[in-house]
Write a structure and sequence with these properties.
The chain is mostly beta strands. The protein has one domain: Jelly Rolls (Sandwich), CATH 2.60.120. Helices cover 0% and strands 45% of the residues. The protein has no helices and twelve strands. Strands 3, 4, 5, 6, 7, 8, 9, 10, 11 and 12 form a ten-stranded antiparallel beta sheet that branches. Strands 1-2 form a two-stranded antiparallel sheet. The protein is globular and about 35 Å long.
Length: 161
Amino acid sequence: MNYTSITQNVDGKIFLTGSVFPIKDARIISGFPDTNYGLEQSVRMAQIDQWMWGFFGNLMANKKLNLYIFSVLGTFGGTFKIYETDNDWIETDITWNNKPALGDLIEELSAPAVGWWQVSTGTTGSICIVGYNLSTDKYEILTYSKQYTTDETKRPYISNP
């Protein structure tokens, strides 16, 4: 993957010719409404006894966010919904109590398996991934965050659709 592949032409237009990392990511948990998890090496998205939402921001519009799912736990009987959000949240400050409101639904996807999972970035520069579990079982997925240092090739990245 080429992480420095943004080019700009004479007209000032910016083109994505390869892949780049998202600028910010975090998870929030309803059961810990004032806790920030913005600098962890993974982003956990779940519906267990509480909500865990994943936020990804400063994204390029109308691209794909590629997430490496390294853990899938439980039985999932629902879908993941990807919503646009305002991009004015700060990675080291976002909590359940100060999260941006969910905007338009971008897409709805089935649960991922371990490996690469691709979601749309929408048009606002920020998205939230929410799992809606219709079963009574607990379910969660974990993806590496941009802070993951053990294997940088498994960090989230942006690509063309």
